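Same chain as my last thread, 345 residues:
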Amino acid sequence: MKPTLLLIALSLLLPAAPALAQPKACNAPAKDAVLSIALPAAPAAAVAGPDGCTLYVSLPGEIAVLSRADGAATLLHRSPVKGLGGALAVSPDGRMLAAATGEGATVLDTARLLSGQGDPVIGAVQEKGGGINVVFGKDSRSLFVAGGASEAVGVFETGKLARTGEIAVGRWSSGLALSPDGARLYATVQFVDGKAADCSPPDGQASWMSPGELAVIDVAKAAVVGRAAAGCNPARVALSPSGDTAYVTARGDDAVTAIAAKTMSVQAPIKGVGAPVAIAAGPGALFVTGSDASVAVLKPGAAPGSIAVKGGPVSAALTADGRTLLVVETDPNTLDIVDLARAAK
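reply #2:
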């Protein structure tokens, strides 16, 4: 028998090799387009780890940790955190979670959060004026905290959680977004001194505040290098995946203000949601929460769409792959895991 034929014959007599175990697909879609997870208290925000497998939800006085696998999500642990539940951010290296507390921010070890072993709190930082929003620097070595009532964004070094400076932006900074290359930080500013108070409140009474701004910060210089008008009562900011456009929710205008990130030129406002607050920007679509009991889906050149949820959505965030939207809502207290391929119409 020829050698080749002999090898074939022998292979037919040998038992088949066992199939290798496949890892769980943490980003696999659920049975339904929207997977709703009941939460024990009113949530403020949710964010995913870099791989999308672990989810973190801020609750009053604690962080809930959930794990995704094969189209399901399981609540693993709840870790106490002092202060009000607020905005969340995961460091680019995935090792830390920062939670805004209303007084500053608490930084936690994600490995301990996931395992449930040991105290996950690394430490806390204080920010004058409060702590409304948080974002890590590109290298995970710095943390920026929006001071809310103060006129600055606090800058902290994550190794020792030491304050290294502050960036004067204006009164009541509440939204933060970092450019994809980490070179620029964008901050919303709700009150601008010296401008006429010409933003009419929703009840139609006399004007009570001036239009706000979006401040662009050079991270290396720790200084504001540009500003753009952002509409009335700007709340949050999100960048397009390419970083070319900054989108700001202007609550007082019932619109999203689009700003070219490089030139800071203001484009036509995007309508389609009342009193918008939270915003996430994906490829070709914006996901916005406002006064409606749904998540608005805004696409250029298309009529506004929506994603139906159960109650009042208060926060929206995308997983890193842009395929899944995380929405937290109250009444009922729920985390919605949304498969955008099926739900965003």
